[in-house]
Amino acid sequence: MPSLYIDGTWTSGSGDPAEVINPFDASVIETVEQAGPDDVERAVAAARTAFDDGPWPRTPAAERADLLRRVADLLVRDKEDIARTETLDTGKTLVESRIDVDDVTAVFRYYADLAAHDAGRLVDTGKPSVVSRVVHEPVGVCALITPWNYPLLQLSWKVAPALAAGNTVVIKPSEVTPLTSVMLVRLLEEAGAPPGVVNILLGDGRSVGAPLTEHPGVDMVSFTGGLATGQAIMRAAAGTVKRVAVELGGKNPNIVFADTDFETVVDNALTAVFLHAGQVCSAGARLIVEDSLHDDLVAEIGRRAERIRLGNGLDEATESGPLVSAAHRAKIEDYVASAQAEGARLVAGGRRPEEPDLQKGFFYRPTVFADCRRDMRVVREETFGPILTVERFTTEEEAIALGNDTDYGLSGAVWTNDSGRAERVARALRHGTVWINDFGPYVPGAEWGGFKRSGNGRELGPTGLAEYQEHKHIWHNTEPAPARWFTSGGAR
Ligand code: TXE
Question: What are the angstrom distances between the C-alpha of 37 and each of 17, 47, 147, 169, 171?
Answer without folding.
Answer: 14, 16, 21, 17, 15
